[in-house]
Structure prediction request, 658 residues.
Amino acid sequence: MAESYRRSQWSNGLFILPYLSVFIVLLVFPLFWGAWLSLHKVDLFGPGRFVGLGNYARVLADPVFLQALRNSIVFVLVSVPSLVVLGLFLALALNKTTRTTSFLRGLFFSSSVLSVTIVTLIWRFVFIPGDGLLAVISEQFGVQPVNFLSTSGWSLFSVGVATVWWCIGLPMMLFLAALQQIPNDLYEAAALDNASPWRVLKRVTLPSIARTIMLVTIIQIVMQFQLFGQAQLMTNGGPNGTSRPLVMYIYEVGFVRWDVGKAAAASEFLFLIILVAAMAQYVVSSRKSEASE
Amino acid sequence: MSASIEITNVTKHYGALSVLDDISLSIKAGEFVVFLGPSGCGKSTLLRMIAGLEDVTAGTISVADRRVDTLPPGKRGVAMVFQSYALYPHMTVAQNMSFGLENIGLPKPEIERRVSQAAATLEIAHLLDRKPAKLSGGQRQRVAIGRAIVKEPKAFLFDEPLSNLDAALRGRTRLELAQLHARLGSTMIFVTHDQVEAMTLADRIVIMHNRKIEQIGTPMEIYRRPASRFVAGFVGSPAMNFVPLTSVTSNGGTINIGTSGLGDIHAAFHLPSGFSPDGASLGIRAEDVTVLPAGQTGIALKAEVVERLGDRTLIYGHLSDGTKLTAETDGRSEARGGDTLQIALDTTAIHLFDAAGTAHHSEGD
Prediction:
């Protein structure tokens, strides 16, 4: 009996084998291979030689890396709160079941299904100097148009606007799902308790969806640190590298300059940053909810 | 503080669907009124309309002589205990109770005084720092009541508050609610589909059926003198027996009632002159049907199922014409399914219902 039970437990593992093998080949193996590459001076053509932490030292000494790091951090600090706040706002506004709200939900989510190429094309039409939408509008009002895509400061901002527009669907849907889990009688109790709409939001709605806010924040931190396509296609990192994010730096070092070891070392830094940011968020939020238990 | 509640010609529609039809009801200050009825009769809707959680399609609702049906829920001076308790899951018990008081800007010392007083009354002082998730069903129930008490409302509204408790706790909480009402002297409206809760708690019961009020009366009035066949069948366990009539002949103060199953019965009745036996029925409760000792002859009842409840025995059977009838006898009865028993009726406890369901009661009752 015990023997057959033990054997059946082992055979249960077969069910996850297909997924596990793909997971190991495509995720676990590249993770360690990346770490191994980051310790070697290697290009795309042949075996490298071991250089210890040399690649890491070269990355940290590279002003272009530090600029890209700064760009990515600024981008995340601005785009993630925008996505969370805007997504929450849209979800709160559309948390009703009417034809109009259903249509608007679909509309706001529709941008998420577009590819990055289409998204950047659309936003280039808006931002491009001369014939772009914003340039035309500025001229209508007699204002000197800003060259959004090639002015330092504005270029990263423009990439951010396109990104928020592209990515807003998922946060909105996650928040909507969370809002619909809140029992309606809590709102009825709050109405009998004389709570103002602001008090209801602060004391009933937001605490009820705190976990989802955290989830959306972590997902967005992870996603926005990986910014690449929009910057590549809208500004190509310019002007002067002021809109070049970390992934674009890694791409350029690895696939343009063929310095794969250094690119791998930069990737490890990015991996670490995302890991720390996500863990910090998690720890802070779980400590807060424990304290209020 | 307690207040009278006046409901005048209230109607409720959801689109084309009518839920309540021209309801009028006066509730006296300090009265404990129970809305009793089967699922879907509109009793919860009526309560929610008093609370302000549902709009009134037509008619008016007044609390303490002030019209409230146009006011938002928080401004009506009523507090509600929900079936699900609806405690705020992220707040402690104390915060749950003080939330409504903070919203109206009550000074902190006054909030603390009311919360600690209510907590002492309900014996939940030791739970004040806990979150609802850490409480048992009964404790949550008390917190929900506490949240209502601290508001010192003009009236308490209870929406089936006992239905989520287990049987033992339900009985105990029922008793505590009765004590609470006696202590606070507040107006209370309680919605339930459980007739035991209604009978034990209510000063007056409002029986609702099919969008209308069927009868308003004290528990004993409702039980002894039901206004309609629906009320007679709905209140009381086991349900009242109904036997179809074949003839009714008046003979001064008494009448001769003909039935096929029970034979002819003489009883003191004042029936209206046009009373027709067509579609009419005779009603009698199981406890008014006596099982005669062996050797005596009465009406034959063929027992089908015998339920022994300890203190009493219920005998479910049928009469000679096949009409179903339930009799109640004492706990020591040795009757078995298949036995033919002899029964007698207490003719002073007979009710007659005309084809429309309107009740007429025997003079002896």
